[in-house]
Structure formats: C-alpha cells, structure tokens
Amino acid sequence: MSRPQKLLREALKVTSTPRGVSIAGPSRLAIALPSRFNPSICPIHHGHRHYATSVSSGSSSTSSSTSTIIQKPQPHQHPAFESLSQELSSTQPCFGARGDEIELLTSPQMFYGRLIEMIKRAKRRVLISTLYIGTEEGELVESIRQALTNNPQLRTVFILDYHRSTRLSRNSSSSVPPSTAHLLLPLVEAFPDRCEVWLYRSPKLRGLLEKIVPERYDEGWGTWHGKWYGVDDEVLISGANLASSYFTNRQDRYIHFKSNPSLLSYLSSLTRLFTQYSYLLHHSPPAHISPTYTVPLPNPSSSPSSSGSTSRASLIWPSASIHPRRFSTHALATLTAFQNSWRSSNANRSRRVDIDTWFWPVIQSGVLGLKEEEKNLVKVWNAIKKSYESDEEGSKVRVDLTSGYFGLYKEYKKLVLDSPASTQIIAASPKANGFYGSKGFSRLIPEGYTLLESRFHREAVRRGRAWDEEKNVGVRLREWEKEGWTYHSKGIWLSPSSSSSSSTSNPFLTFIGSSNLSTRSLTLDTELSLIMMTSSPTLRKSLGQEVKTINRDSKDVGEDTWNSEDRKVSWLAWVLVALGVEGML
Predict the structure, then answer these.
(1) Dihedral angle over CA of 455, 460, 464, 467, nearest 10
(2) What pLDDT sits at residue 312?
(3) PLD phosphodiesterase domain location, by residue (predicted)?
(4) Per-residue confidence at 585, pLDDT binned at 50, 70, 90?
(5) Which helix (H) or strand (E) holds 464?
(6) Average pLDDT for residues 206-217, to the nearest whole number?
(7) Is 360 within 8 Å of 379 (Cβ atoms)?
(8) Structure pTM?
(9) What distances in angstroms separate CA 150 from CA 156, 194, 233, one per listed residue?
(10) Distance of alpha carbon 240 from alpha carbon 213, whole angstroms
C-alpha cells in the first residue's frame, strides 16, 4: 500500500461514533454504493416541485430499491439552481440537515457563550481549528481542562497556524503566556494521551526567504485559516478566531449545527489528514525522536526559566518520508482522494426524508494546488447568469457579498462585473479595519483597501455597472462602520430579486466560512467554507436577518468618498499595492 493510501486510510478512521450511527467514512460504509455517483438519487434541492430519492427495500434477500416521490418546497424555482446542486454534488462531499437543526448566531458574545456551553457538555471529542487562540483566553482553556478532567473518554485535538501560534507576544507579562503554543502546553503535559496540538506551516515560505523574512511578516506566505469548532456531534463554522476581540467587538458570521455527526466526522477526518503535514507540540520529546525532525519551541529571551517543561518543549514533524517544506504535491494527491472518497458516499447521507437544507464543504489551498472554492463559486455565478436568461416572473436573483477586507480575488471581480445580477458589496470602512491605527507597514493596509475599492468602483462605472437607485440594478458599494467595533464578516447570499412576500424574498443560498474571498485567501491561505442551499422558511428568515443587520451599520460609498480628504491614499500605500502586496492582504 502506498504512503498516500495509508494516510487516507488513517484519515478516514472515526472514533467515538454514536451507537447506531454509520458515519465511519466512505471506506467503511455498510451500505453498498454505486461505483459511479449519480446525483439524481440524492434529494438535493431540485428546482422542480418533485424529485426522486432511492430508498432501500430493507430486505436482505434482494438488492433492488424503490423510487419514492417526495414533495418538498424548493429554494428557487429556476432550473439553473437544480443544475447547480447536481454539479456541486458531482464534485464535492454533500451533507444535509433540517433548517431547525441549524442556528445562525448574531454576535461575538453569542459565539463565545455557545462555544463555552458546547465544551462544558463535551463527552467524547473536542475539535478546534483556528488561526490562533489569544494568549489571554485562560477561561476557554480552563473549560477544556475541566472537560478533560471530568470525562476520561474525552479526546481533544487542536490544529492551528504554526507562525501565528508560536509568535512571541511583545507585551507578555508573567500572568499571560508568551504565545498560543505556551498557552496550550500545560494541557498537552497534563493529558498527553488525550490532547493533541498540531501546528500547520505553509510550505511556501522556505529556503532563503525563510531566513530573511522578519517574523512579523512570515504570515504573508500563507497561513492555516480554516475555522471549525466541534464537540461530540455539534459543529460551529465561522470566520472568527478565538481571541478577546472576536468575543466582544469584532463582528463575524457564525453557524451552529446542533447535531450533525456526519459533518463532524468529516471535519475530524480532514483534521487528521492535515496532521500529516503539521508539527506536533510536545512538552518533552522522547529520546528516540531525531533532532532532525524537531524544532525547539521559541521562548522569550528574558525567560527566567532555563529548565522545566517550557524549555524542553518542542515541535515534532511526524514523518521522515515527507519533507516539511516540500509536501504540496503529496498533500494535493491525498486531499483529492479524501474529498472524492467522501463525495462517493453522498447518496448514503441523503436518505433522510426530512432534510430541507444541503451544504457542500469546499477546501481552498492555493499553495497546495487545491482550488475547490474558486471552481465552485464560478458554478454559482454561472447559475446566477442563467437565471437571467429566463423571462419567467421571479426567476432572477440578487446577490449580497461581504468581506472585511476589500481585496477581492481577480476572478471574483470579473464575475461580479460580468454578471447581470444586482449585487451589493459591503466591506469594512478604514476605521472598522482590524489594522486601523496599527504600527509599522500594517498601518497602510486600510489605505491599500481604499485604493483597491476605488479602482473597482471606477471599473464598475466604466463597464456600465454603476448602481442605479431608481432601477435597483448594478453594483452597489457600501462600507460597514460601528463605533468601537471592527468588521470581519465574509460571505455571499443569493435571494429572489423580486417577490411580493417577504418570506420568499429571503436568501436561499449562502457561502459561509473562513475565506475572505480575497486574493490572499484564494492563493496563499488554507480555507474551509460551505456552500449551503435551503428551503427552510426559518433558516431563510435568519439569513435575511443577517443581511439586514449588516446593512443597518453600512452606508453607500462612491467617487465623493474617494475624493474626501480623510480617504487620501499615501504614496507609500500606492507603492506597496504596485509592488503586488495586494496578494498578501
């Protein structure tokens, strides 16, 4: 068996499966699946009023199945979106749920409260994937410690970004650990068999650059950026990291799947696969581990301790056969096989007859050559365009798009400008940008976004896509600003463009996750997001409320904005954008 096959088999192993639930991954499904996946047997949002689902006869003496017609409300009547769901299911893993099993959280405080509640009731598994955890988050770590102490069967796995989690704080005190890795080290030491901390390092920064790039800027070559938080069978997907601002005054999006063991098993398996390309934090590496595969955990030069677990702590590379800087080809092959394996079991996860919401995870890792987000959002925009080819009443859709950073990927800009759909784009105002008022070159980042935004606006005007308030067509640019807050939300919503009923004018499709829809997200960072379609009135209402809430703190911007004195772009910001820094923003 080849090394990739072994890794894939390991990634598909699932532990702590609830009794009676078959979610062990495609290679261990008890139900025989067709050798070639046929989307037509998967009841996924067909645009017509009826669709067929394959139902097992339940007889052990026959392998035949019966086709049952099930009537359900559909998210949109245009056949373009029936085709879209089939296209997505033919290339991506697909999961389903009822709308009332999904909750959209509305504030940082709700996000933090829900996360702590989930951890406190953990019995079997805790899974945390994020860029970093703030070193001040002692309460969060203590809740995990208590859960591990109270539940001997509980296992916890973290996967974080290497650079961000080992970077030493400049303002650390004796009461606050100097880095995320130091924050989690006591957990690893106290529960060595049940707590794992993995740090993923982008393979793009290597060679001479690795030696000369200042520590503060090493994230410019890519990060681990996916955010998923799982406990037992619950999952939170977000764009928010785990730090104080994300729990208080930094607005993001958060979606809670109250019970979806298949989704969490998928994320657990995906995490396990990525640990093959990550460093393991260890409080005291065993003697047999070669120094070739270990990196000492950075410690403050002023640290009073030259002994103890902190000074011995190291980061261990797990495989001698995989180079820690040259694993892109290997990882791409393994991830592709992993996604295909889960996709092949879509039919099995589609057997529930009460499902009204479907979602497709898409992984984007430009440095590894995996571009699922890019390919599938092109399909979404193609479906939008097709909906405008019909004169049927109510067939057209409108688009809402937001990102905390207006560095839209080039292909996405083109899709927006080429689309006939009315599109509203909301970005953070300079004051709502997380880099506003920072020191060094990062203080120029809000100016860089102003330059990119103004160029996009002028291109929209040149292309005849300027916003027309009377006709309600074109591309409308708005900026979010709220006193004392920063903006980190990102996503896309599709809604019927005209409807006499407010209930049917709510979004039926959304894109949600860690991606900022930026050049950086598409080419450098490793992201995970969901494309979700729903016919649930409750969930659609919540999606509509999301858009309304974001709009409440937003205002229109245009040429007058760019010409105002407080939006002048310095020559240095112009130079940085001209040098191609846009791709790192």
Answers:
(1) -120
(2) 87
(3) 220-246, 483-521
(4) low
(5) none
(6) 85
(7) no
(8) 0.87
(9) 13, 13, 19
(10) 27
